[in-house]
Amino acid sequence: MKTKELELYLNDLLEVPRYKDYCPNGLQVQGRPEVTHIVTGVTASVALLDAAIEAGADAILVHHGYFWRGEDARVIGQKHGRLRRLLVSDTNLLAYHLPLDGHPELGNNAQLGRELGLNPTGRFGDDQLGWTGTLPQSMTLRMLADHIAGVLGREPLAIGDPDQPVRTVGWCTGGAQGYFDGAIAAGVDVYLSGEVSEQTTHLARESGVGYIAAGHHATERYGIRALGTHLAQQFGLRHTFIDIPNPV
């Protein structure tokens, strides 16, 4: 498959023009013109680049790429090391941030909800990135945290009364603790995201809505993997998902 054809397909599939993002979405570093093997991962770290290049990838597809708004534009230090690996190996790098969060089927939020067995009921927040849904049955906050730990393989931070009953859930993966107010307004019993801030604790205590921080990386593994699987099925490409452990 032509690299340009792959980018155009992804741009259309993920509706890139809909989103005002903090980074460029699409092809970020140009490599070889043909793609037969795609490696997917959450973040374009050196560890992922080295593993993908070693695996013979023609393209690396990630959620967290490069060239974030406000960052130093100079190609020095870590940025030089990362870009040098891609350019020397002639490997393409494609990245999709908010468009991957928001996709109704392959997106991070859709896939996390599916992994946790949540039944989606609505959307909220900027670009409708936040989701609401229901659990199959009511459980306590402690039980939900245990369930999340079992699915994600990571112990989450749960704020609230461990014995409070929860049935309705709001969620948004990654660093979306700022959506907590919107989730409360949506009437959920508990809100799940990847990260937590100092003020989150007070908001949870004062609102009576539980908060679960399950890890930025841990909550965003599923969208990029699903996207790679979709491309493999759609175009007969070889796909390898590489998970680089990250405790955050």
TrEMBL record:
Q: Where does this protein have coiled-coil stretches?
A: none
Q: What is this protein called?
A: GTP cyclohydrolase 1 type 2 homolog
Name the source organism. Cupriavidus gilardii
A GO cellular-component term linked to this record: cytoplasm
Subunit-level organization: Homohexamer.
Q: Which residues bind a divalent metal cation 1?
A: 63, 101, 216, 220
Query: Which keywords fit this entry according to its UniProt record?
Result: Metal-binding
Residues reported to bind a divalent metal cation 2:
64
- A GO molecular-function descriptor: metal ion binding
Which family, according to the similarity comment? Belongs to the GTP cyclohydrolase I type 2/NIF3 family.
